[in-house]
Amino acid sequence: MIYVSALLAIVLFAVGLWATRLLPAASKAIEISRGAIATMRDPGLSDDEKERATQRASLALMRNFLSIVLRVGVAVLASLIPLFLFDWSGPAPIGQTVAWLESWEAIGLATVAMTGWYFAARKR
């Protein structure tokens, strides 16, 4: 039952990342950064205009960072649900499940599965 609990935790983490739209938020951070770099390189702008644009980009990146942290937090909380349920009901103690999730086998399997899921979802 440890494997079932761990699998559900991994699946709920991935679903949490997808449901909170983490990838678009991360893409937005990259977009903001590229825009700031383009602004800094624009010879047609004065130093004051560049400074204001850079400050706006900095604030946007801070908001985006907070958004990403909150989204990951939601995904982590979702992944904890099966761990606590299986621990509470008895078939899979949380300590043993977390120990397996920390193993290289679990990390490797989760990485391969999530990478495959990502590329499958991109094709759609």
Keywords for this entry:
124 residues; mainly alpha; elongated
Question: Care to describe what's here?
Answer:
88% of the residues lie in helices and 0% in strands. The protein has 124 residues and is mostly helical. The protein has one domain (2-123). The relative contact order is 0.17. The mean pLDDT is 93.
Topology:
Layout: H1 2-19, H2 22-41, H3 47-89, H4 94-101, H5 104-123
Helix pairs in contact: 1-3, 1-4, 2-3
Low-confidence parts lasting 5 or more residues at pLDDT below 50? none
The Rg value, from CA coordinates, equals 20 Å
Strand portion, in percent?
under 5%
Order of helices and strands: HHHHH
Mean pLDDT: 93
Q: Shape, please?
A: elongated
Q: How far is the N terminus from the C terminus? A: 33 Å
Number of strands: 0
Counting DSSP H or I runs of 4 or more residues, the number of helices is 5
Helix content: over 70%
> Main β-sheet: number of strands, strand sense, barrel status?
none
Give the domain tally: 1
Provide the structure class. Answer: mainly alpha
